[in-house]
């Protein structure tokens, strides 16, 4: 304890702040506190919680300006002293930095990776905690010691700017969120906003870590934001933007580790300035699920969704409303012309529908498709319900095949999934078979926001009949296949693998129709033998692959090749899978639908990560029953080098290879596979066997 006090004293005298940003990367300061002592014994302390984390990044052609605000809370029965660390990456330094605590300016010292490493060693050794080792190799800023009272709060605001480097029309923005992850407790409110103010058009905006909401002001300006309340933060924030390019725009990102298959992601963005053609007149059939399985609250939302769709119809449109029941029925025997009176009548009809009965999904869909009579109008079906057929023909494959066969006028079917017993696999397959779209309400998003998002896609596609041709490599297991039409304003994301063992120049040809006119765009891309960037790609590809296999298994029943492939992927990437047998209507069924939707749509692998697994910098670590984190690339036959936790050798190897610090931070006992050997880090209390 005397040693801890000596370290604390030296830190209080010499530290100011740790701050650094790589290119365009910073955010998430750490409030590191020291335990007080009582009669030469240290007292266990809870790390300060983060009540608020707000980051605003404004990006221009030359600079990225950061405004970071955090509020920390001391949930201990005694005051604490510590230091505030604002980590950055590599050797980039802000031109100026302003740090204020509770509105008072604090002096700060920017420390290079070499200067900061001895400090990192002292902090880690004094606390016998490796959590900060991920800061190795990074520039950090030290603000002098911070005091925080009993049950007290500290507000920290940081403002600085960094130069921007846009390479090959791509910009990669990182907010490591070190402090938010370090706190361990859920973050009260996390708010991240990235505003683009560019001289060139902003094409695609994509995050592999968080679900984004994107607002476009002009072709050169947009706002992307992510927000959460009361959730733990396990990953930093990353945003990738592309600029200028062709129409439609094609960007390809790659990742490949030695001895493994490579992964690529293609981003297809719609043209910037499409000719504003007159909106085609639509024939829209709304299909409302009124079956008993919906549940009262979900049924009320379904009615609300149908009425919202009616109110969005335009001049010249026609419509009808079908009700799914034991015997499907409709508001009218034919399509009705739009008018204030007809919409009001339809709203009254929807309001009068009572919940109950079975679900003849098959006949409701087939009958709705028989409403269409003209190829000169845009046919659309909007299905709102849980997708669970219980009456008549219920086999999923038969429903999909017969709906396709009955769809003579090529109507696009859009599905909005609601209810506890939602069959996401069937709803998505029905939509995909008609090149429509699907969305599902899982209770995690404001319903009105979800409706706006859903109906914004119920429009003619800007880019259709999309295909990619790789002339010099053989892509494998491409998802999605076939590539869907581009609906709304977002980009189409295509993922796949490749097995080439050398750098391979390749011409990638994008073929599509833009407002019905054929267009071809060709890009020259090198698929590298080794590419350590974009380490999120293998996990993201695997998520989409698992979703595809789960859908096939749920629609067609367990198939031998899928039964083996799913557990293999789950083991390789540390994913959780739904139980093989799911009881209809039981609690597992809803969990399984939620999990499938996350595999299909989420970009954050932590949403599908199994307990006891962690993805770190392209590797997957598994926690053994003995409490040892083990690299999934490790094999018992590997030559293993044992290193004592906190030893000179432990710090020496991290100083020489700073990237290892990320893995060391996971725990005091671990096994890490490297190219020529395995490292076994062992604490004095660690198990003899992993």
Automatic annotation (TrEMBL):
Superkingdom of the source species: Bacteria
Residues covered by the VWFA domain: 283-458
Pfam families xrefs: VWA_3
InterPro entries: VIT (IPR013694), VWF_A (IPR002035), vWFA_dom_sf (IPR036465)
Domain VIT: residue ranges: 34-162
Protein name: VWA domain-containing protein
Species name: Desulfomonile tiedjei
């Amino acid at each position: 304890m005397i040693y801890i006090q000596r370290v604390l004293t030296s830190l209080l005298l010499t530290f100011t702040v740790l701050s650094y940003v790589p290119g365009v990367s910073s955010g998430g300061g750490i409030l590191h506190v020291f335990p007080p002592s009582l009669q030469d014994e240290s007292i266990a302390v809870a790390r300060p919680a983060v009540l608020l984390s707000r980051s605003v990044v404004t990006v221009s052609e030359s600079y990225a300006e950061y405004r970071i605000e955090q509020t920390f809370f001391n949930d201990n029965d005694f005051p604490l002293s510590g230091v505030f660390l604002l980590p950055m990456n590599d050797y980039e330094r802000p031109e100026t930095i302003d740090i204020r605590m509770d509105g008072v300016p604090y002096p700060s010292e920017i420390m290079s990776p070499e200067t900061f490493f001895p400090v990192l060693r002292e902090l880690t050794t004094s606390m016998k905690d490796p959590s900060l080792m991920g800061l190795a190799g990074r520039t950090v800023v030290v603000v002098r010691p911070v005091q925080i009272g009993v049950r007290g709060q500290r507000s920290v605001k940081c403002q600085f700017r960094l130069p921007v480097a846009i390479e090959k029309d791509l910009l990669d923005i990182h907010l490591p969120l070190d402090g938010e992850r370090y706190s361990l407790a859920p973050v009260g409110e996390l708010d991240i906003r990235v505003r683009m103010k560019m001289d060139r058009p902003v094409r695609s905006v994509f995050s592999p870590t968080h679900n984004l909401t994107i607002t476009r002001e002009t072709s050169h300006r947009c706002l992307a934001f992510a927000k959460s309340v009361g959730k733990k933060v396990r990953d930093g924030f990353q945003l990738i933007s592309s600029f200028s390019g062709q129409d439609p725009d094609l960007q390809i990102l790659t990742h490949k580790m030695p001895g493994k298959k490579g992964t690529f992601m293609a981003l297809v963005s719609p043209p910037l300035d499409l000719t504003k053609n007159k909106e085609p007149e639509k024939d829209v059939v709304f299909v409302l699920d009124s079956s008993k399985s919906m549940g009262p609250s979900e049924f009320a939302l379904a009615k609300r969704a149908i009425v919202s769709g009616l109110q969005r119809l335009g001049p010249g449109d026609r419509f009808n409303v079908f009700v799914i029941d034991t015997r499907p029925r409709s508001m009218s025997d034919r399509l009705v012309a739009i008018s204030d009176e007809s919409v009001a009548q339809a709203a009254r009809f929807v309001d009068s529908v009572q919940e109950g009965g079975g679900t003849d999904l098959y006949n409701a869909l087939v009958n709705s498709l028989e409403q269409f009579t003209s190829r000169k109008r845009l046919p659309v079906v909007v299905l709102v319900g849980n997708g669970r057929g219980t009456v008549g023909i219920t086999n999923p494959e038969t429903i999909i095949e017969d709906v396709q066969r009955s769809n003579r006028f090529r109507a696009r079917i859009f599905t909005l999934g609601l209810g506890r017993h939602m069959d996401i696999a069937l709803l998505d397959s029905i939509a995909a078979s008609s090149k429509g779209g699907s969305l599902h309400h899982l209770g995690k998003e404001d319903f009105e926001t979800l409706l706006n998002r859903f109906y914004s896609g119920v429009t003619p596609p800007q880019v259709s009949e999309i295909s990619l041709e790789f002339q010099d490599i053989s892509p494998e297991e491409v998802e999605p296949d076939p590539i869907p039409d581009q609906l709304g304003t977002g980009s189409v994301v295509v993922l796949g693998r490749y097995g080439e063992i050398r750098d391979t120049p390749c011409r990638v040809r994008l073929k599509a129709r833009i407002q019905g006119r054929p267009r071809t765009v060709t890009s020259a891309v090198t698929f590298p033998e080794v590419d350590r960037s974009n380490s999120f790609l293998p996990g993201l590809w695997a998520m989409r692959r698992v979703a595809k296999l789960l859908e096939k298994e749920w629609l067609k029943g367990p198939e031998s090749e899928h039964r083996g492939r799913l557990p293999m992927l789950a083991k390789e990437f540390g994913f959780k899978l739904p139980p093989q047998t799911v009881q209809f209507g039981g609690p597992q069924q809803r969990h399984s639908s939620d999990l499938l939707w996350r595999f299909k749509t989420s970009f954050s692998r932590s949403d599908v990560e199994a307990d006891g697994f962690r993805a770190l910098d392209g590797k997957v670590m598994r926690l053994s029953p003995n409490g040892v984190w083990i690299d999934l690339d490790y094999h018992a036959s590997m030559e293993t080098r044992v290193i004592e936790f906190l030893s000179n050798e432990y710090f020496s190897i991290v100083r020489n290879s700073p990237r290892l610090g990320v893995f060391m931070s996971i725990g005091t006992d671990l096994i890490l596979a490297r190219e020529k050997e395995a490292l076994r880090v062992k604490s004095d209390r660690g198990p003899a066997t992993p």
